Amino acid sequence: MAKMKRTVIVASAMVALTACAPAGYDGANSSAVEPVAVAAAEPSATVEAEASASAEAPAADAPPANVDLTEQLVGKNVARMGKVITDQDGWILYRFDKDTADPPASNCVDKCAQVWPPALTDGNPQLTGVSDDKVSSVTRQDGTRQLTVGGWPVYRYIGDKKPGQWKGQAVGGTWFVVQPDGKKNLSCLPTSTPKAVAPPADSGTNDAGGSGYSY
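The chain above was modelled as a monomer; its predicted structure follows.
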């Protein structure tokens, strides 16, 4: 991957967790917050070798014309949440505890991927505030390539209705805002565990009741 300019942003002073809810956050999740238990441990070692091997594996095909690519990763600090990564349009990105970083693998497919669209790439994203040695890609089951940060595949959340929101934080106890080093951002955790929104109505699924969600 070509060298990218890195931007370092100094973190602002800590803000009380009770001010964590972003604009437009659901009332049920915007009350006082406290840390929740996190089952998955952070990876203790880098996965550069595995991630590099995945990135250098022969690409199946170029992404289909109708696939939206994530052309830029921007690491920065935002009010209340702290360290985050956004795409080129300002949408905050997430990681999934049911994925793996060593080796990198995505386990969010089918309905899950409709709710949590993977950040797809052609292999050459522009990086700002994210170290290029942290960024690679992994080939998904459908042959597309998904960006990884610190080995972890990254995603958007359709429950976020505008750039800068983080309604996906702690959804299902397995989804968390991702930091520029690939670790979970454990700020602004709701007191209860939010449930994922239903897949889009035109997806041919009917999960409005939320039963059987595993994402």
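The longest strand covers residues 72-78.
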